[in-house]
Amino acid sequence: MKILAIESSCDETAAAVVEDGRTVLSSVIATQINEHKLYGGVVPEIASRRHCENIVGVTSEALEMAKLGFEDIDGFAATNSPGLIGALLVGVNFAKGLALAQNKPFIAIHHIKGHIAANYITHPDLQPPYLCLVVSGGHSHIVKVKSYTELETVGRTTDDAAGEAFDKAARAMGFCYPGGVHIDRAARLGDKSRYKLPKPHTKNEYDFSFSGLKTAVINLLHNNEQKGTETDVNSLAACFQDTVTSILTDKLISAAINLGYKKIALAGGVAANSQLRDKLSEAAKKHGLEFFMPDISLCGDNAAMIGCQGYYEYLAGNTSDMSVNCFATGKLHTL
After folding, report:
1. 143 — phi, psi (to 5°)?
2. Cβ-based neighbours of 83, under 8 Å, separated by 6 or more
3. Which end of the chain is more exposed for a tag (fewer CB within 10 A), N or C?
């Protein structure tokens, strides 16, 4: 079965053709990073306009790369939640139009489910159940993956997501958007023990809180500036990254052990962070857990992961009619 998938939840316009959930026949992404970099973050109105301009081109390129026509596609999928509402609407309405024109099923996909599904492309042998850490600019979740379509949230951020904290801390340090990659590079040149940063506590032991940590970085920079003290930015980046990745790693491993999981996985944009990948790999080995993570190319927003999840939703009978809407903050069960 061939799924043509669309992803437009934030600032990437992406299209892909995925066969039987695991084989990517094509994947095309038009990024807007250089434009949003001017503003230090994503501007929703600009993102929506660029999706309108790019969506026909990326879809045509994805079909051409797969050497297929619309008539060869068995179903159409698109991210409908969560994300920037205007951006989501572009992708969903375009995919619904294609499905209607071809008289083929339309499948609405939750963005977090898509990120988790990226692991199925990298690891064809991976099957549920397992526990997955999803970390990105908008999400920090620990999720029970009970089946390909049944998920349960165990923990989540109570304020800022990890990726959001990375971006805001990076901007305070003088790095441009997106900040995570710059902190990752700078951290390799710094001393992670030079500055002491807090590890916020949460009521639910599997929840996350990164707002206070981000504020601590900003306050340290401001205090040093007021005192005329030079801040070692590389070391501050190293301390910040080490603190965030330690929190994420410790909570996922603790949840896996306490909840009886032998398999764990990582997903989302922050899954590209080199220290997080290394820490989870080492921790999983230490505790005898199988660990799965997507290729770097599949960590950020892409349509291949949406096509993969679309296949499993279709098999489970979770297709959507033409009245399905988009949701900026849709929960995992929202279609």
Report:
1. -125, 130
2. 8, 9, 10, 111, 138, 326, 328
3. N
Contacts of 136 (CB under 8 A, 6+ apart): 115, 161, 162, 163, 268, 269, 270, 271
Copy the structure tokens of residue 68. 């297929």
For residue 48, what are its two tokens?
Answer: 């929506």
Residue 189's alpha-carbon distances to 43, 183, 233, in angstroms, are 32, 10, 10
Q: Please state, in angstroms and rounded to a whole number, the distance separating the CA atoms of residues 40 and 326.
A: 26
Tell me the whole-structure pTM to 2 decimals: 0.95
φ/ψ region of 331 (left if φ > 0, alpha if ψ in -120 to 50, else beta) reads beta
Six token digits for residue 180: 């995570």
Residues 6+ apart with CB under 8 A from 159: 209, 210, 211
Tokens describing residue 17: 């053709």
Q: Could you report the per-residue pLDDT of 47-78, keeping only the tens digit for each?
A: 999 999 999 999 999 999 999 999 999 999 99
